[in-house]
Amino acid sequence: MTSITKTERPLYDEYTGKLDDLIAAGLVRTDQLPPLGKASVSYSHGSVQRRRCPMDEHYLRVVRNLDGTWSVQVGITAQIAAPRKAAQRAASAARERERQARWNKQERARKQVELDQAAALARRNLASVIKSETAYRRYLVGRLREMTTLVTDSAAEPATWHGYRLTEESRDAIVIATDALAEAVLQADVIFDQQVHDKIIASYRATIRAADPSFAMQLSALVQPNPAILQGEAS
């Protein structure tokens, strides 16, 4: 029982199997086998081709495979080759479309991750937008006290300041000065620029909208600057 596998290529039919089976099927003769030391030999019109061999109905190639089997490539006519080449081009185009679709999907996913990360930061920023003069003053006081704590914390490791630290009297003096500064900040006059305020909020909204258009409908309720800012507030 012979075991020959036929594969239709765009320019030839390829038959693979045991050498005896290929010879018995009349696909190749013993005198057409590759010479000693060569793995393959090509023919055109029955003559050995040592350079580029045209692939038409007169083409023949005999190949010794590494697994011990042999392959015989038999050329086909242009009429038979034409639809095969067309099918190959169509298959190649389909593979390219699939590859491009996969790449587009991956690129969209990567871009969405970036947009989501930017939107998450924009949401946090939007939630922390200062909405009134009072909130602005309290924010400044908070930052002021953070700086004071940094230099007056008696629990700080000496290594933090390379062996230097303030005396307890100096820390107490700084705390008293900070209290006075904080009171000055709470009583300070504030200038509010509505245009800059709106521009910052619009930027956050645009970032969020880019990642999730449906979220834009919810934004109006998140930030409502206090109208009293325009007239000033009682602190």
Question: Would you summarize the structure shown here?
Answer:
By secondary structure, this protein is α+β, with helices and mostly antiparallel strands. It has 2 domains: 5-76, no CATH class; 106-231, no CATH class. Helices cover 50% and strands 13% of the residues.
Could you characterize the architecture of this molecule?
With 235 residues, the chain is α+β, with helices and mostly antiparallel strands. The protein has two domains: 5-76, no CATH class; 106-231, no CATH class. It is 50% helix and 13% strand. The chain has a six-stranded antiparallel beta sheet with strand order 1-2-6-5-3-4. Helix 2 packs antiparallel against helix 5 (194-211).
- Total helical elements: 6
Whole-number count of domains: 2
Cα end-to-end separation: 102 Å
Order of helices and strands: EEHEEEEHHHHH
Helix percent band: 40-55%
Quantity of strands, as a count: 6
Q: How would you describe this structure in keywords?
A:
6-stranded antiparallel sheet, 6 strands, 2 domains, 6 helices
Spell out the blueprint of helices and strands.
Blueprint: E1 5-8, E2 12-17, H1 19-24, E3 40-44, E4 47-49, E5 59-64, E6 70-75, H2 78-127, H3 133-152, H4 168-187, H5 194-211, H6 228-231
Helix pairs in contact: 2-5, 3-4
